[in-house]
Structures are given as structure tokens and as C-alpha cells.
What does this fold into?
Amino acid sequence: MFGPEGPGLRELAVQVLSSVDRGYDLLAPKFDHTPFRTPDSVLDATASALRRTGPFDAGLDLCCGTGAGVGVLRRVCRGSVTGVDFSAGMLAVARERTRAAGPPVAWVRADARALPFRPVFDLVVSFGAFGHFLPRELPGLFAQVRSVLRPGGRFVFPVVAPPRPGSLEYVMLLGFDAVMRVRNAVWRPPFVMYYRAFRFGAVRRELARAGFRVELQVLPEFGRRRDGSPRVRLIVAERPEGEGVGISHPCP
It folds into this structure.
């Protein structure tokens, strides 16, 4: 799973026994050499889908990490691009890697559950971050995203079809989540990372409850499963036109 440039077992153990933000501060220098980074194939397919409906003006990468999703925004946004994350270490790596690679990016340290922005974005994207939010936190998270979008703005993220029950991948993810639950029951601070907590049906319902108009787009680059269902979908949640805009709450 990890190449020679990735973290060792001891480094991963220290990370997972830390808080989420401290853990990612420690992992940041080697994060792009782990399987936790969103693959370029998913980023490229998302950018291609967004080009068909764009261009957009201002874009925000929610929980940006080391900035992989910012690269997508730079391809489809003709205005400003912002990355927000709560890990200072991840932001430092992102800032360094994009310093000499095109137009400047605004990097903001903040909690996604309390975004410090007015409704100024036309596009919000996020890649691989939702396992850090418990199901009960999704309504507040989606409300925050909606509050920083202009009317007509879109919240877009890819969703991979879940593994079939009984498959090796299913068993591995089930085991990982079980280990995390045991760890959080006996160790503080908690480290929230659950691969099976972000359920497709529940996500659609919570987006609709938050006031989004939700549609699904198939990413054809990844083909279909044996039952004909797509392997990867893009969720496109639009804040309807004709609404007034409110002011989001600043970070504490």
C-alpha cells in the first residue's frame, strides 16, 4: 500500500493515536505517497465532467489536504481559487507545492463545520474527506457549504460504489472501521476516520434537506459493475437560483 517514500508503520501508529488535525500535521510531508490521496484518475475525470458544465468563477476545495483538488479547480475556474483545511501541516505542503505552478491560491486554515466565508463561491469540490465526519455532522456540514455558495452555485464530489458484501475489500473496510471504533472507545483524543459511515442514500437525503437540488452524473472513465451500475458517480448539488444569500458563521 505504501511506497518507499511513504510513512512507516511507526509513523502511522503515532498519527492514528493523535487527534485528527495533529495526525495529519504529522502525515502531511508524506501524504501524497499514501493510498489516502485521491487518485489522479478520479481528479481528471471530475475535471472533465466539470468542464462540460463550466466554466466557473470562484472555486473552493473543501478539506483540501495537500491541494490535489485545487488542481481541478484551476482547470475549470476562471476566477479565484481557495483551499480550506484544518491541518496546518497539510496546508503548508499544499502552499509549497503550488507556489510556482500558476495563479496564486488562497489557503485558509478553518474547520469545514464553521466556514469563515461569505457566499462568494460558484463551485465547491471535495475529495476523500467525508470519512472524517460522523453521520450526525452531515446536516451542519452541508448547511455550511450551502451558506458559502452563491445562488446557482454547485457542490460537487465523486462517490465510489461500495464494495459488495463478502468481498475482500468489504471485509477490509469493515475491519478498519471496527478497529477505529475500538481505538476511539479506549483512547483520547478521538481520531474520526470511518470508511463505511458515508452512505450514498443518506448523503442524498441530507443534501436535499439542506436545500440543494441534487443530480447524479456517471463518470464513464471507470466503467460499470456486473449489475450495470456505475463504479463512480459524481454528485452535483446545486443551490437553487432566486434565493437570498445569508452570511455564514465565522470560525471560533
In short: Residues 246-252 have pLDDT under 50 and may be disordered.
